Amino acid sequence: MTDRVIISGIGQSAIGRRLGRDGLDLTVEACLAAVADAGLTLAEIDGLTTYPGASQPGVGFSGASLRDIHDALGIKPNWVAGGVESPGQLGAVVDAMLAVAGGLADHVLCWRSIWEGTAQGSGRRKGYGSGMGRPSGLLGWQLPFGATAANLAGLQIRARMLRYGLTREQLASVAIAQRAHAAFNSAAIYSEPLDLETYLDARMVSDPLCMFDCDIACDGATAFVVSRAEHASQVDHPAVTVEALDCAHHDRFTWEGGDDITRISSRWSTIWERTDFTAADVDVASLYDGFSVFVLCWLEDFGFCPVGESGSWIADPARISLGGELPINTAGGQLSGGRLHGFGHLHEACLQIRGEAGARQVDGAGLAAVGVGAANSGTTAMLLRRA
Question: Rounded to 5 degrees, what are φ and ψ at 285?
Fold first, then answer.
């Protein structure tokens, strides 16, 4: 796949806390931008794929389905795929890469759009499961007992405190560093400075998880075009290739029922067996931060530090900040930039590899690590470099 596939185009819509725009409108904006960036016309797009498709497990969780974009843009694809049960949130991109590598399509448009901010109204973000009626299936066992995302993240942090000695001061480094990065991203939801005192005094969501440990519901869409490698000569910017890819998931798909609540599914990754690079070669990392604690898990599972030592490894936020040893989530991540659900992490990694991240550009970024997913969903680990 590495020699056959490139990410030829990237695009994003406007991003905002509550834009008051329709999800399809945002998605079309991102898709058209990605196609233009790839140097293509809509007539040349012969594949479509998206996450989560028509499935909508929450209000505003999906902005446009595969059928929506198919009809809105008049694309006539030879291959399509879309759905929530895929290899992680980046499953649509993985599917696109495999389709192009397998000869099923030449140029696949893939997207992820979300408009939770507008869809949830003007009040506070609604709790998980609200507006969904009487819970059934797995949710019927979880919701009555408060086994929802924030509470489970709180349990994960507490378990890491007890087992590994993690402190809130250490965990704060994630939110503080990412907020500093967001100051260089004009599209970030929150960009005002965040210091340790403010973090420690913040409102608790599920002790010891505070409001700064949680991602920010927003409106926005991100799109990519995945093309045959030969197309690299036809674009006016560096093409991006996937040096290595891993989507292993050996645990159960229930957070509270997994083997180890202190870790997430990324612990099964064997990505370093698929490349000659090592963790020491990575210049910048985009690591999933639905909650801040996930970043700690990804740091360990990529091998940037030993398991259980991520807290002390990031105790000084300078280490994971611009100019530091391993800058992470350089656009602000989901904690400050907004919850674009994994696609935003890949978009920022592509900008870094292309050298187009502006004031937040990491000097000489040649290899980027992307880790997306958490405990109760598939995970995708990627290494990106210039084609």
Answer: -130, 140
Q: Specify whether the CB–CB gap between 330 and 355 falls below 8 A.
A: no
Name 124's Cβ contacts closer than 8 Å, sequence gap at least 6: none
- Give the whole-angstrom CA distance, residue 328 versus residue 174: 9
CB burial of 275-287 (b: ≥16 within 10 Å; e: otherwise) equals eebeeeebbbbbb
Residue 33, H or E segment: helix 23-37
Question: In the sheet where 380-386 sits, what is the strand order?
Answer: 79-82, 47-50, 107-115, 219-228, 5-12, 240-246, 380-386, 367-372, 284-287
Which residues are CB-neighbours of 95 under 8 A, at least 6 positions away? 49, 81, 86, 87, 110
CB crowding 157-166: b at 16 or more within 10 Å, else e:
bbbbbeebeb
Phi-psi region for residue 165, left (φ > 0), alpha (ψ -120 to 50) or beta? left
Q: Which residues are CB-contacts of 257 (< 8 A; sequence separation ≥ 6)?
A: none
Tens-binned pLDDT, residue by residue, of the chain (387 aa): 889 999 999 999 999 999 999 999 999 999 999 999 999 999 999 999 999 887 655 678 889 999 999 999 999 999 999 888 887 789 999 999 999 999 999 999 999 999 988 987 776 665 555 555 677 777 788 788 887 889 999 999 999 999 999 999 999 999 999 999 999 999 999 999 999 999 999 999 999 999 999 999 999 999 999 999 999 999 999 999 999 999 988 887 777 777 898 999 899 999 999 999 999 999 999 999 999 999 999 999 999 999 999 999 999 999 999 999 999 999 999 999 999 999 999 999 999 999 999 999 999 999 999 999 987 778 999 999 998
Virtual torsion, Cα 325, 331, 335, 341, nearest 10 deg: -110
Helix (H) or strand (E) holding 287: strand 284-287
What lies within 8 Å, CB to CB, of 192 at 6+ separation is 179
